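Before the break, one more example. Copy the sequence into your notebook; we will annotate it together after we see the structure.
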Amino acid sequence: MDATGRRSTVDRFKNPLEGIALGDPFVLRHRGRFYLYGTNDGPPLADGREIPVFRSDDMIHWEPLGGALEPMDRSADHWAPEVLAWNGQFFMVVSFGDVDRKGHALWVAVADQPEGPFQLRKRISAPDEQFSIDGSWLLDDDGRLYLFRCLDFIAEADLPHGTGIVVQEMRDPFTPIGAPATVLRAHVPWQLFEANRSMPLYGGRTFQEWTTIEGPAPVRRLGKYFCGYSGGNFSGAYGTGEAVADAPLGPYRDTRGQAGPIFGTIPGLVEGPGHFSVVQPDLVHDWIVLHGRRPGESVRSVWLCPATWSVEGLNVGPLTDRPQAAPPLSQIRDRFDGPQGLQPIGWTPESGDWRLDGDGLRQRDPQAVASLWRDGRELAGDWVAEVYVRLPETPTAVAGLILESDQGRVSLELDRVGVHFRQVDGQTHGADLPTLGDEAFDHARYHAMLVRRRSDRVEVRLDGVLVIAIATVPRGDLRLALYARGVAAFDALSVTGAHA
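Here is what the structure looks like once it is written out:
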């Protein structure tokens, strides 16, 4: 969409995405753009880094940005990155090593930008774990962080032998809490990787049946915790399933694995589809991003597929290479990318000094109580709105949103100590700033502030954490404004009707 809310990209697309040779794809939505990472199935990257990263405004056209990760071992295979945006930084969980000699160790790397470069910071798999891969973050509504990952189970009496999924709570992105809890291990025939598999990594030991459950894709939906997975042999029979639990640490049960995979190889169309991740391009609708090989090809490509969740679990489809509707984008998207020093198009200032500054939109007057109103559109029915905010200077500054109808006005404010939602009736809901571990909330970096309306009630999230869940907004259609007291910066406003 451009500044007027009109879609400026394609309405239809075809799978697989053109020109991207990538396995284990993961998409991060950040500041109104999308970043795609994965295992490199193409030639070595020209910049000498690992983990290809691409950027897009629409999920269809992707710009290659080179390698995201500065490697520690350039001879190693680097697999299955996933990125957590937190407190203005980016935390990539990635494994590297090889299958036969070194095994794979899981590490966390850190960058100040989503495109990197990421610097490896800390090994997160235990020293005695010879093979740990496929890390996946889950930030829960309450602000607790969990890491799902895969381990090999090889103890003689601990059947079935093979790779399975575990989960650990994290104190911060580097520090596990307690021992890993098992999420899921193989339990049906289609999850067999290979019979009589001889493995040099384990001293040439031969396993009568080596099974594989990998590629965790955890999400919270409908008050439950769903963990997607891929099973079987990635180079042959490969399928996708899902487990569900009432709590992040389980216990988990397979939703439909006994009946076969949710989706797998489709003859003549795609071989070995799997290892998906989940993204909401418009903040409302789920799409999965997965890899698969075209028949006769050895490299993996990236496929997109719409998805929903019900009490039975994941529903996908269709997985097709025919033209289909592109992933939906927000009806209103303002990136504040215009010429520096100008006021943004499509907005009217009521007070304050609002100027584009090359890194978003800044209210520059340190003494102002300022508001900037979005022109020409009102928010009707159910909707979700997100804006990125930061407080770069004044200790007493405030930034947020105003929502107004003929029934009254409410405001959502971020300040130095918390988040506050002020209602028409004068009631104020407040919450502390979400943090992990010992690191303080960094006001100088951008943070995602999201408001979701359902009927006359709203919930507020900050950086994905549910901070307010019981607020109300005025009845009727609402106008929206950016709001600041003192110097504040804004970027990437997105608004989507929840039933669009």
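Residues 12-325 form a domain with the Tachylectin-2; Chain A fold (CATH 2.115.10.20). The chain has two domains: 12-325, 332-497. Try to locate both features in your own notes.
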